[in-house]
Amino acid sequence: MTTIAIIDDDVYIGNMLETVLQKEGYGVVRAYSGTEAVLLFEKQKPDLILLDLMLPGLSGEEVLKRIKGVPVIILSAKTAVEDKVGLLLEGAADYLTKPFETAELLARIVVQLRCGGALGAAEVLRFREIVLDAAAYDVFIGDTAIHLTKTEFAILKLLMKNPKQVVTKSLLLERISEETPDCMESSLKVHISNLRKKLKEAGGADYIEAVWGIGFKMRES
Questions:
Q1: SS3 of residue 132 by DSSP
Q2: 3-state SS assignment for residue 49
Q3: Which parts of 32-96 fold into alpha helices (H)?
Q4: CA–CA dist 164, 25 (Å, integer)
Q5: d(Cα 172, Cα 188) in Å, to the nearest integer?
């Protein structure tokens, strides 16, 4: 699951962001001060960070200097151009002024995760007997190679990245559109049906299950 860290001492804003992000299928971790954020990053590495500047303990500017290899979107009430430019030059990936529209923030998050994924290391995902090599564009069940279409591959990769989570139809369409823009809501069921059939033929088991009215997830054995 893609995990986003919210670093903000404003409990109301943090709760609102957590609710919005979880609704979109993201995992969320939180810290309420700069010092707590640094301790958090020592234990785990999120995929993206939403960082307020006015924090108790270490300031957001000080926290930013300690973050390496993770995109950071600054969320701040500071509107001065020099503040924005300075932080972008110091390593922030983006800057959004409070108050902001959640739709715009979600779009900026998608952009940063897309860029980060393009620059990241190659992924080899495993679920039960399935092995998916994102770099080689290969899928195997045991010694059997599974020949998938581009859309089927994108769907399986997203589901295997979030094996314990129900991925909603809307989130599936949004995420796989980055790799296969031809998939529409009307054809999504067909692509998933074909994918499930290919996996079952190779592995003799159902690996994907539909959760009625919500979406799809990997099926535990």
A1: strand
A2: strand
A3: 34-43, 60-65, 81-89
A4: 11
A5: 9
